[in-house]
Amino acid sequence: MQTSPTSTAGADTAEPPPAVGHPDLSTVPRIDFLLLALAVSGVAFSAPLITATAAPAVAIAFWRNCVAAGVLSPIALLRHRAELRAMSRRTVLLSLAAGAFLAAHFAMWLPSLRMTSIASSTALCTVTPLWTTLFLRLRGQHVPRTVWIGSCVAFAGVLVLTGVDFTLSARALAGDGLALGAGIAASGYFLLGSEVRRNTGTTVYTFVCYTTTAVLLLAACLASGQALTGYSADTWTKILLLTVAAQFLGHSLSNRVVRTLGPSLVSTAILLETPGAALIAAVWLGQLPPVAVYPAVALVLVGLVVVIRGQQGRP
């Protein structure tokens, strides 16, 4: 399965019907579960790569979105020009809003990785199912009881995790707060994306979204005085690897499958980023979190299993 933007664009014309709220997973094509697994694998490399990259946090976020938007530009503007022109005003506004939420997500999460452990930051940032479930309920959609239970179990893991970091330092706790805010922004990004993807192809949506995110992050970098150039060759290589792994494999494939799997399942599956990132950080960076972090992460993963079982049990 190719993971380039071209292959993603080619999938636009063969995508299944959109899912709304909590879909019946028995009707979803198996390839979408494989794509979701690839997306989770991609984002798992995100936190360790960011931590190992010697560049300002928000500048890293800008470049990964700028490169992704640049790669998608010729594809979207040449092959999907008609679809871009056909976008309704509402669809454009929702895509812009999704880009703004994604920019807020990056602006909070990347700095948090330099303030607290990778395990804590990713666990708190990826507890988006709770916020997604709450937002869906506020929109009047029915939320199965099992999904609520799973979300609450995951949030219990969040509370345990923040309690651990509170005993470590105020800086770690502040990093937890940023990561939690980033998770809330990510849920808005997933929900808006699922709405846009009901009638818009992956390439067109991600092009508009990533471009918006890049412009907003560029403004943030200029306002805060973060250096955008002058990096070493090793730093540029890691930024490119981050773009391929996290942006194209992670975010773009998530945008692809949120159409059929629904925002709750996609945001819940991203919780698997936590153990993946922690394992990579331990092997590559030698960063081992406190022992008390592990039961908290376990609660988060139990919540994931409960939410998925709740969605599978729907008639």
Automatic annotation (TrEMBL):
Pfam families: EamA. Keywords: Membrane, Transmembrane, Transmembrane helix. Residues 34-162, 174-308 form the EamA domain. The chain crosses the membrane at residues 33-55, 61-79, 91-110, 116-136, 148-166, 172-192, 204-229, 235-253, 265-285, 291-308. Residues 1-21 are annotated as: Disordered. InterPro entries: EamA_dom, EmrE-like. It comes from the Bacteria. Residues 1-10 have a biased composition (Polar residues). PANTHER family: ACYL-MALONYL CONDENSING ENZYME-RELATED, EAMA DOMAIN-CONTAINING PROTEIN. Belongs to the EamA transporter family. This is DMT family transporter. It comes from Streptacidiphilus cavernicola.
